[in-house]
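For the sake of clarity, the format in which proteins appear in this thesis is described at this point. The fold follows as a row of integers, each naming the local backbone shape at the matching residue. One such record is shown here in full, so that the layout can be seen directly:
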Amino acid sequence: MVNINPQSQLGFSNQSNASWPVGKPKPQGPEFPAPDSASSSVRGPDQSPGAQAANASQSASAAEGASQAAGIPQQKTWPVSIKDLNQLMVQQNVPNTPLNKSLAMFMLQHAVELSSENFEKLHKLTRGRTDKNALESAVLSLARGLGDAEKSVDFLYPFLSNQGKTAETINKFSQSIARFQNELSQTLGMNPSIMGGLASILGELDEEFKKLLKRAKGDKLDLAEFRRGGLTKDLYSLHQLLGGLEGKLAGKIDENTRMILARFKKDINGLLGNFSSQAILSKSSEKQSIKVLEEFAYWQIPNILGEDPSSANVDILIKKDPLKRGADINPSKTKIVIRLDTPDLGEVSINMVVMDKKIWYTFFAEKESTSKLINSFQKELRDMTETIGKEAAGFQVQRKKHDVKNQLLQRLNLDDYTRVHMQV
């Protein structure tokens, strides 16, 4: 239900849609008053500010009176307050509890409709957890169209908690494979042919993950080599295989073997969750009635260009084209965001705006020495851009940290919401 109260025509909105709770981006420059058709926006020399305000008030009163006489609905707006939020929850028959208020805040930030149905779904997704990362994980899951997938909250939680980085998770899983193979070889009661088949599967998988942690020989970073979709399917198939094996051998293996299998399945879930969270965050939102936010495809991969890929990551965001079906990526009109962990330069982020044959570069670095170093490579960057048939149209370095997570999540600013009252 879009309008929260059809009788009084009350709702949260912005200028672009008067019946849906969607915020608007903050303006990039100064705001200028729109010219008024009834009076000039330029004040003459004989018109003081007080006189101008009085004239404006009289004009507004006259216009309001004329509208009322003509039976035209009157609209009033004001910034949203906690009182408005409480009133909305009462209208939706949602208990006014601290937990529901917190959920409501996250729902507004992610442009999810504040309805009793959505609150019910969120309570099922959180499963009793009340910390802010669990609540936002549930809202994100609902916004991405995964309202019934409780496991999605478990996948998103580590990302919001800054845990489970891809490089560390892959490295840990590679060690887990070796430990599992060693423990399994010492267990009794396991069929030798089954153990041989498992060893072969695990060996191939381990080799593939080790490749992801090897330092690149050149200076090329190819996303195609990081086949996230294929690895996710492989991990899921392995998890299902072990689950079926566990059930088939029930009563034939000892407690120690069951614990070994359970522990390794948990380790698989850890890496599976990491890849799945990236896929979820790459999904377009299904709960926004209008597209006011940028949406990105997202990858986090080991930094194979660094000295130790197992301890550093690269975050890559590529903006989707809202005009293309399925919000696909338009390589001629997009935005690319890259965040790098580096041992010597610190954290470095790069924003690249691509418009046909031109690219605008913005670098973010906290260290002064890193900022100076980046500036010194300006000519080399322009030359490299020309080699791919494009022009470096802009270059700047900002000495500050760039929050890639906030750019990916695209949280709406609650100060941009307004309450709308329509009265006939």
